[in-house]
Specification:
599 residues, alpha+beta, 6-stranded antiparallel beta sheet, 4-stranded antiparallel beta sheet, 18 helices
C-alpha cells in the first residue's frame, strides 16, 4: 500500500509545470480579453471618477400618496433600473419625506440611467380611435419606400403585432387630410356619444363590457356628447411637434377614460385619440429586447403577459381586427406617450406580443428594462441635476494608494529579512495575484457593472495581508519539516497537506465574512465586501496553481536544496535535528581480555 502512495506523490511532484502553464494561460487569456474589450482600466465609482447627482421630488399620483412605503418602493425600483443598465455603485436614497437623491457614476450608460431613473413607466394598451401626423413634420415618407401591399406578418403565423410607420404615413395620404380628420372625428364622436369605443370597453382593472352598450339615460348621452366635443376640440388643436403641448396630454388621464396623446415614429410626430385602457402594463410578466434577424423590423421588445393579461390582450386584438383603419390599431402608451401603434389582423393569442417600430438597440433595451422592473408608485419631478467632480475622491485615492504602498513595502521588507530566498516566491505570488485582480476588475466593469470605489480599494489593500498570510503558513510548515530532519524535497510535499488545510479554512472564514457583509449592507460598503471576497478567491487560486508548483520546482535547485544560508531554509539556522541513523561501533576486545596498556 505504501509504494503506490509514493508513486502518486512522485508523479504529482514531477508535473508542477502543468499548474504553472495553466495559470499562465489564464492570465494571457484574461489580459487579451481586457485589451480586446477596450476596457484597460477598472471602471471607477462616483467618488473616484465623478458623476451626476439627481434630486427628485415626489408628487402624489392618482390613487397613491407620498408616504414611506411608496418612497421605499420607488427607491427599490430605481435601484433595480440603474443596475439593470449596467451601472453599479449607483446610490439611491431618500432625503426627507418626499425627496430622492440618485448618484450615478460617470460611465457608458449613465445618461440612459439619468433619463430612466425618474420615469414612472406606467404602460397601457389603448384602442386607437383616430390618428394623423401632427405639426410641421406631417409629410409622409415616399410611398415607393414601402410596397403598397406590404403588411405585418399574419398573427396566425407570428403571434405578435407589428407596425410600420411608412405604412401608416402612406395610408393616411390616400385621402385628403381634411376628409380623413372629418371621418375620424365623426367616428370618435359617435363612439363616445354611444358610451363606448369601437373596441370592448375594458378598464385597466380587467373588467370587460360589450362595446355596443348604449347610454342608459339621455343625461348620460348628453354628458358623453359634451366629453366628445371637448376631446375632439383638444385633438384638433393639438400640435405634437411642440414639447409644451405634449407635456399637457396623455399622462393626466385616467386609465378608464378616453384621452388624446402624442407619439413619435421615425422622427414624425403623430397625434392620437385613444379609448379607455384595455390592458394594464402590470400584466406584462417579462420583457426583453431582441433583434429581428429574419425580417426588417430591427430591434423589438418582446413581451410575455400573465394569464389574465393574455386573455385581455386576445380579446382586445380580436375586436380591433374587425374595424377599419386606424381603428384596427392599439396604442402602446408609456407615461402618456404612444411608443408604438401597431395594427392587428386577428386575435393575438398565446400571451406573447412584440413592440416594434423605429427602435435602436438602446431604445429597445431601455423600454424592456422599465417594463421588467415595473412602474413607480409615484410621479417625480426633477428638482436639480448636479455634476459631481472627482477632486476630493482623487485626493482620498492618492492617500489610500500611498497607505497601500507603504503596507506592501513593509510586508516585502519583512519577507526579505525573515524568509530571504523564499521572499522571491512570496513576491512573485503577490505579483500574480495583483495582475489577476486588476484584469478581472477591468473585465467586471462592462460585464456586471462593477465600479471601483474607495471602500473597494481598501478591500484590495486588506487582501495583501490575507494573501501574504497564506504564503507564511506554507513556508512555516516547510521549515517545521526541515527542523524534523527531512531534506527539502520531501519537506515541501509533506508540508503541503497540512498548510493547505489551514489556508482553506482561513480563506473560507474571510470569504464568509465578505459574503455576509455584502448581503446585509448597501451602497459603498458592498464594494469593500465584493473586493475582499474576490481577492480571497484569487488567493486560493494563486496558492494552489502558482505558489505550490513554484516551490516544488525550486526545491530541485541546489541553492534551496542544499540549504544555502540566504535561501531561508538553512537547516543550521533553523535548528534542525540531525537525521537519526544507526551506526556500527568498532569491534572491541573479547570479554575478559585485559587492556595491553593496563597490562
Amino acid at each position: 500500500m505504501a509504494a503506490p502512495k509514493r508513486g502518486r506523490s512522485a508523479s504529482a511532484q514531477s508535473k508542477p509545470g502543468r499548474s504553472l502553464a495553466l495559470i499562465l494561460i489564464a492570465i494571457v487569456a484574461l489580459t487579451g480579453g481586457m485589451f480586446l474589450s477596450g476596457n484597460k482600466t477598472p471602471r471607477l465609482g462616483i467618488d473616484l471618477a465623478g458623476g451626476t447627482s439627481i434630486t427628485l421630488k415626489a408628487k402624489a399620483d392618482q390613487g397613491s400618496a407620498v408616504n414611506k412605503a411608496n418612497m421605499d418602493t420607488a427607491v427599490d425600483i430605481m435601484n433595480r433600473r440603474v443596475n439593470g443598465l449596467g451601472v453599479s455603485e449607483a446610490e439611491v436614497q431618500t432625503q426627507g419625506t418626499d425627496n430622492i437623491i440618485v448618484n450615478i457614476p460617470k460611465g457608458t450608460n449613465s445618461k440612459e440611467a439619468q433619463q430612466q431613473v425618474g420615469t414612472t413607466a406606467k404602460l397601457y394598451f389603448r384602442p386607437v380611435l383616430a390618428s394623423e401626423p401632427s405639426g410641421g413634420a406631417a409629410q409622409s415618407p415616399s410611398p415607393s419606400a414601402t410596397p403598397s401591399g406590404s403588411s405585418s406578418p399574419q398573427p396566425s403565423t407570428s403571434p405578435s403585432a407589428s407596425s410600420s410607420p411608412k405604412e401608416k404615413a402612406s395610408s393616411s395620404s390616400t385621402a385628403s387630410p381634411t376628409a380623413s380628420a372629418t371621418s375620424q372625428g365623426r367616428a370618435v364622436t359617435d363612439a363616445l356619444k354611444a358610451g363606448s369605443t369601437p373596441t370592448p370597453s375594458t378598464s385597466a382593472s380587467g373588467s370587460t363590457k360589450p362595446s355596443s352598450t348604449p347610454s342608459a339615460t339621455p343625461s348620460a348621452s348628453s354628458s358623453a356628447g359634451t366629453a366628445a366635443a371637448k376631446l375632439q376640440a383638444q385633438y384638433a388643436a393639438l400640435d405634437c411637434s411642440k414639447p409644451a403641448e405634449r407635456a399637457k396630454v396623455g399622462g393626466a388621464s385616467k386609465p378608464g377614460e378616453p384621452t388624446v396623446a402624442c407619439g413619435q415614429i421615425r422622427k414624425v410626430w403623430y397625434k392620437y385619440v385613444l379609448g379607455p385602457a384595455a390592458v394594464d402594463g402590470t400584466e406584462v410578466k417579462k420583457a426583453q429586447a431582441v433583434f429581428d434577424t429574419q425580417g426588417a423590423s430591427g430591434w423589438q421588445v418582446q413581451m410575455t403577459f400573465s394569464n389574465s393579461g393574455a386573455k385581455k390582450f386576445a380579446d382586445i386584438t380580436g375586436q380591433l381586427a374587425k374595424n377599419q383603419p386606424p381603428q384596427n390599431e392599439f396604442g402602446i402608451v408609456l407615461d402618456g406617450e404612444v411608443v408604438s401603434s401597431p395594427f392587428v389582423q386577428g386575435a393575438i393569442t398565446g400571451g406573447q406580443a412584440e413592440i416594434s417600430g423605429s427602435f435602436t438597440q438602446q431604445d429597445a433595451q431601455s423600454l424592456a428594462n422599465m417594463l421588467s422592473y415595473g412602474a413607480l408608485p409615484l410621479s417625480f419631478q426633477e428638482q436639480s441635476v448636479t455634476t459631481v467632480t472627482a477632486a476630493l475622491g482623487g485626493e482620498q485615492l492618492h492617500a489610500g494608494l500611498l497607505a497601500g504602498a507603504i503596507g506592501l513595502a513593509l510586508v516585502v521588507i519583512y519577507l526579505v529579512a525573515y524568509y530571504r530566498g523564499l521572499s522571491v516566491v512570496a513576491m512573485a505570488s503577490l505579483l500574480v495575484s495583483a495582475i489577476l485582480t486588476y484584469v478581472i476588475m477591468s473585465l467586471l466593469g462592462p460585464a456586471i457593472g462593477f465600479a471601483l470605489n474607495l471602500p473597494a480599494v481598501c478591500g484590495a489593500i486588506v487582501a495583501i495581508g490575507i494573501t501574504a498570510d497564506s504564503f507564511i503558513v506554507y513556508f512555516e510548515r516547510i521549515r517545521d519539516e526541515i527542523r524534523e530532519g527531512r531534506s527539502l524535497r520531501p519537506a515541501v510535499e509533506r508540508a503541503w497537506p497540512r498548510a493547505r488545510r489551514t489556508i482553506l479554512v482561513s480563506d473560507f472564514v474571510s470569504f464568509l465574512a465578505a459574503a455576509v457583509l455584502f448581503i446585509v449592507t448597501v451602497g459603498k460598503v458592498q464594494g469593500f465586501a465584493f473586493t475582499l471576497g474576490l481577492t480571497t478567491l484569487l488567493d486560493v487560486v494563486v496558492v494552489f496553481l502558482f505558489t505550490k508548483p513554484l516551490m516544488t520546482l525550486l526545491a530541485r535547485r541546489k541553492f534551496f536544496a542544499n540549504g544555502h544560508k540566504w535561501s531561508g531554509l538553512d537547516p543550521k539556522s533553523l535548528g534542525a535535528k540531525p537525521p537519526l541513523r544507526r551506526t556500527r561501533r568498532p569491534a572491541g576486545p573479547a570479554t575478559g581480555s585485559a587492556d595491553p596498556k593496563e597490562a
